[in-house]
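Table S2 (continued). Query chain:
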Amino acid sequence: MKSNLLRLTVLLTASSLSLSSTAADKVRINGFGNVVVGATSSDDTFLGYDDDPDFSNESLFALQVSSDISDKLSATAQVLGRGSEDYDVDFEWAYLSYKITPSLTLVAGRSRLPLFTYSSSLDVGYTYHWITAPGVVYDVPFNNLDGVKLSKTGYTGGWDYMFDVAFGQFKGTTLGADNVGDNTVLVSAQVSSETLTLRSVFGRTTNTIDLTKSANETAQALGNGFDSLEALGFVDLADSLRIEEDTGEFIGFSLMYDNFDYFIGAEYTEISVDNTFANDDEAYYVTVGARFGKWTPALTYENFESSGDVKYSDSIAAIAASGLPADVAGALTALAIGSQQSQLSEYSVVTASLRYDITAGMAIKAEVSRRSDDVDSSLDATLARVAVNFVF
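Corresponding output:
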């Protein structure tokens, strides 16, 4: 950890010393961090925490450097180290921005996908009232995009508006395997008044997750099982179950009302990948809070549901009628059905939050979250967290 942060500090210092005074005036260095400690009650596990206090799971530190290359062209890079990854420093963002007109901007490189209300500041805990944004909605493996994004902003009829169109590729991790989205297209629209913000977003991608290369033994066995189906002649069923160049879609809506004394907001998302073992996911949250000077208490309700429905019934029934030995046919049938039923998930989370603004740029927060699982009660859990968020 120390060596990573030291390399980063030396790099930034050397860069600043090498700049002329004119160039230095065009360079902006900002940073932010979250120091979070949490623990669950009893032997529960939730959000990566157990009953031993953990200071690294959600803590992070980041620096962002921006420079104006010309009146219209600028460059931005953000490096970030997460405690869960031993503070190994990675480039979270690295892109060029070109102002085609004062209201039309083209971005090329790695940037944040405009999926959610808080997408652009997702890692900056200081910008919202939670310790982390609601996981049922925000915990997705495709927040960043390598590609291009065109943004249009303006004002009409008392409303500010912003439209984004993005195209490129995302890479993430799902079930311990690489989650790759090629030819990703995303369109989002946002309008806002002094107190009200409305958003909608639609995205589509060509998704591939090769489970045979997963670091998770269970997921790897699942991928190998799909290969066995194909090897034994059930090619169509294997193709239907695999996530290989299949169409994935993302839909989202949000509403936020904030009159500076109190606020209420909600976001809803749907994620689907056609012709795979995965089922459609639906998630939403509702949050309400009020401001009393430096204090902001809030209450948030989250809900997540994945159906676990069994598809491809005719193809699965063909396994039993194939003449294979009963134990082999039974194992393949269990694989085809179980891979889909294992997606069944339905749970809710209620979180009570309290934020106190220590000073400009720094806040301390405390939260207690209770997860209630409607499918497996052993996953019920209570989590307490305290965090310090800061920007500079």
